[in-house]
Amino acid sequence: MRFYEVMDTFTKCGFASVTIVNSYLIFLTVFHIKRVTGTYKAMVLIFSTIGIMFSSWELIARPFVHNYNKGFIFFSLNTWLEVPQKFLQVALVIYASFYLWMVSLIAVQFLFRYYTLVNPRIAKKFSGKGVGVWLLYSFFCGLVYGSLVFYFGQPDEYSDEYMKEEMIQTYGLAVDEIPRILMIPYDSDGSIRINVLFLILGGLDVAVQYTIIIYCGLRMHIVMTREFARCSIPNKKLQKQFFRALIVQTVVPTILFVFPALFVLFCPLLDMEMHFQTGWIYAALSLYPPIDSLAFMILISEYRRVTKELLKLIFPDKPRQVANGSATLAKTG
Predict the structure, then answer these.
(1) Per-residue pLDDT averaged across 253-267, rounded?
(2) N or C: which terminus of the chain carries fewer CB neighbours within 10 A?
(3) Which residues make Cβ contacts (< 8 Å) with residue 247, sequence separation at least 6?
(4) Which of 37-46, 255-264, 281-290 has the lowest mean pLDDT?
(5) Residue 242 and residue 110: Cα distance in Å, rounded?
(6) Cα dihedral value 136, 140, 141, 147, nearest 10
(7) Cross-strand pairs, 317
(8) Cα-flanking dihedrals φ and ψ of residue 275, to 5°?
């Protein structure tokens, strides 16, 4: 199956769903939710907004990836924008940056929730000017990752020639006519090319975020197990809900994107024969923002309660009212 031919549908569905779901989450958080406050409220709003931006940018970048033997090509399927090839190449880089930006924001949320439990004084530093600091940190992580993709993934004569025949046979595309990023770690004589530095440094960027997430997640679990007997029941319940929401925020992109991406990124190092349209991982990733927001609203009980109240206002229980009215008339008669 030529999966790239249905990517447009996945991209548009992802954009529509995340726009609706995240806009609703933002609406509830701003106007109705009372227990998500302060710094964490800012984190929820920023993360939801970035999710919409991410899906919107995917419509422009239209990313796809193909693995072939000892290399892979990250290219754009955008055919509706009449812009220079360089613009869409940069669009691909920005798309890659968005992913690391989002993962690093999740790491920041884990840090904040951890210090809220064990050291509220440090947690207060995440507010005020601290918002700018952690937002800049997460943006910087994404910027570093995107810069590595751009610098080490520039096409050259060898990489284009290596992918030329494969792209024509699989997609009917001339490799030098499409916006592309190429990663081929080995030269024709088997020597290591500079591309391999992206795999090392980019992998380190991702590893830092997951180290923060795993460490804080384990520590939070220990604290909640040992210390929550001292907390009031409402606070205990809310903290557990926040923790579960953070776990979902981490597990979903890890399953949908990180594990498959490890295959895409590191298989070329094995120098083995392969021929895969691995761009399906971007279709999976497009589902992440709406799934994340839905899970958050389901796990935090206040969002469920407010949603039920809004649904009752929109769809009042008229049959019951009529039945009650009939019963009253019968008694009067």
Answers:
(1) 70
(2) C
(3) 217
(4) 255-264
(5) 10
(6) 160
(7) none
(8) -155, 90
pLDDT in tens, 168-200: 998 889 999 999 999 998 888 888 898 889 888
Among residues 294, 311, 66, the alpha carbon closest in space to that of 173 is found at 66
Tokens of 136: 């800049």
Q: What is the CA radius of gyration of the chain?
A: 24
Phi, psi values for residue 179, rounded to 5°? -65, 130
Q: Cα separation of 62 and 68, whole Å? A: 20
Strand order in the sheet with 180-183: 180-183, 71-76, 63-68, 275-276
Residue 327 pLDDT class (50, 70, 90 cuts): very low
Under 8 Å CB-to-CB from 108, ≥6 apart: which residues? 43, 126, 134, 137, 138
The two tokens of residue 327 are: 């019963």
- Spell out where 69-116 has E strands: 71-76
- Chain centroid to Cα 57, Å, comes to 13
CB 159 within 8 A of CB 72: no
The Cβ of residue 123 has, within 10 Å, a number of other Cβ atoms equal to 20
pTM of the model: 0.84
CA-based torsion, 211, 269, 192, 150: positive or negative: negative
Q: What does the block give as tokens for 120?
A: 């509220």
